[in-house]
Design brief:
InterPro entries: Monooxy_af470 (IPR025444). It is built from five helices and five strands; from the N terminus they run βαββααββαα. By secondary structure, the protein is α+β, with helices and mostly antiparallel strands. It has a five-stranded antiparallel beta sheet. A hairpin with a 4-residue loop joins strand 4 (102-110) and strand 5. The longest helix is centred in the N-terminal third of the chain and has 19 residues, at 28-46. It starts with 16 loop residues before the first strand and ends with a helix.
């Protein structure tokens, strides 16, 4: 059988954002948290959030279990608005109060250029395997700022401000 080679014509998606997210654990509680979050994420995806073009489940490793997903968003604003609203906002608030031995990371790649990543309780994946590790503060606090995105649209209210996180 002759190979069939295809290419994706992304001209209709000039503001496409691809985001990879991963979760792993360092305790039984963390594993339990991962299994609790999975169905919640699927329910949110099934609701077809505005701007989400595709959601895929990924498996990164077995010991410890390292699960993830890849999402394709029409544009950064759609993704950002979804993360600042329920149900995501509620998950993130609960998670940041007590990660319960769960480690989380995400990396975003933008069609118009720019990549960024953020890592919670994990330092051996993705960009952190070769790029300098810096505190998520100041210009590195928000995804929009890490991507150096300028927009006329005001940034939605963050789930947590930098000052809020210091109080946790």
């Amino acid at each position: 059988m002759k190979p069939v080679q295809l290419a994706a014509d992304l001209d209709s998606y000039p503001n496409l954002v691809v985001i990879y997210l991963g979760m792993t654990h360092d305790s039984f509680k963390g594993l339990r948290t991962m299994f609790k979050i999975g169905p919640q994420i699927q329910k949110a995806v099934d609701a077809k959030p505005e701007g989400l073009l595709r959601h895929e489940q990924l498996f990164f490793g077995f010991a410890p279990l390292h699960l993830g997903m890849r999402q394709y968003w029409r544009d950064f604003e759609s993704m950002e608005n979804w993360t600042r609203a329920l149900p995501h906002q509620g998950w993130w608030k609960d998670f940041m109060k007590d990660p319960q031995g769960t480690r989380f990371w995400h990396e975003a790649y933008c069609m118009k250029g720019g990549m960024e990543g953020v890592y919670l309780n994990i330092d051996n994946v993705g960009f952190l395997q070769f790029a300098p590790k810096v505190e998520k503060a100041g210009r590195m606090f928000s995804s929009r700022d890490r991507l150096n995105l300028k927009s006329d649209t005001p940034m939605p209210t963050p789930v947590y401000t930098e000052a809020d996180l210091k109080k946790l």
